[in-house]
Amino acid sequence: MEKKQFYRTVAALVLPIAIQNLINVGVTSADVIMLGKVGETVLSASSLAGQIYFIMTLIFFGLTSGAAVLTAQYWGKGDTRTIEKVLGITLRIGILVAVGFTLAVWIAPELLMQLFTSDPEVIGLGVKYLKIISCSYILSGITLVYFNVMRSVERVVIATVTYGVSLLINVVCNAIFIFGLLGLPAMGIQGAALGTLIARIFEVCVVVVYGWKFNDTVRFHWRDMFEKNPDLHKDFLKYSMPVMFNELLWGAGMAAITAIVGHLGSAAVAAHSVTQVSRQLAMVVSMGVAASSAIVCGKAIGEQKEDLARTYASWFTRLAAGLGLAGGVLILLISPVARALLNLSDQARSYLGFMMLVMAILTVCQSLNCVWIVGIFRSGGDTKYGLYLDGCSLWCGSILLGIVCAFVLHIPMPWLYVVLCCDEILKIPFAVRRYKSYRWLRNVTR
Description:
Elements: H1 2-38, H2 40-77, H3 80-107, H4 109-114, H5 120-133, H6 137-152, H7 157-179, H8 189-214, H9 230-262, H10 266-282, H11 284-302, H12 306-341, H13 346-379, H14 384-407, H15 413-420, H16 423-437
């Protein structure tokens, strides 16, 4: 009976979260498909410019994942007032981060693009994209923080519906502005940015209306953004800062890998862009399971049911392995379709086939690492271990080796991609050992 209840609970959480992740991938996929029809250079420019937003969203994810360490356990304890205070703290920091990224783009967009590529044409197109899309950063910060905190208290449907409508708005606006439909001029890459901005405006309007009018479980209070609570601030910083730095290190690592690829030509960048979208698509359910494991295990720990939390962790691990296999198969199915559909050069098409095969093989490792590090470990407040593990395997492993192989040994691009993805394999033995030790299982509520 407990196992049946577990799967019912997980399904109620995973399905909306997975749909949200799928919708987010759909937004990126819409840009890739439509801009891929325009040309390889435009696709490369939007992909590289999008790395700025990618790094920012990872910081938001780190903040909210760290906050979820507290909110999930306080949810199990039944203390919603403390959850409201954590929401206020997280929103305050999230808005400050978004303001910082917006100012950076307005002040030095060319410099930011030069971090990822030396191609003048790609830089020029990327700057045009950044000047529009940066207006959505603060809006995205509010939306992502609010919905992710609501997720930790099992309020996931509203985000799914919102992102679903937002995807529809984004796709329609992209088509109109990119290709110049309805008598409007064709805007190309700027049209993609404008379509995304309109969708973000819709999302934040939903957050405002839902938060003030309909959400009676966890209310937003302006005073919580400025109220001083030393003990809660201490707990928030203790558990959220390692997660934020973890996500920042990982995001910066992904950006560094993109930068390495970016200096190898537009064909490599285009193939890498499509592969990354395919990876995100294959991982949508695993990411949902990871988020659900943080909620379910954290709630059990907050209810002081530690044996149950161990059992849940075991079941989540089995789910992660199965979903990783399914994700790998999905990537293999996407590969021939992507090569036939997109307007890529022969070289980019050749790169893409090999890179998709590598990613399909590594998806099982990535699924397990994601559920353990992002979900199970964080449910018990074990946030520092993930920081150390991700940081060392990525920066001292795949990135360092990638730089040597790319610029010293000059290994061809397809094989270089194997090196750039090896961190997922390096993490497995250490993650397994930590999981079996149960050192991650702690009650952090006061």
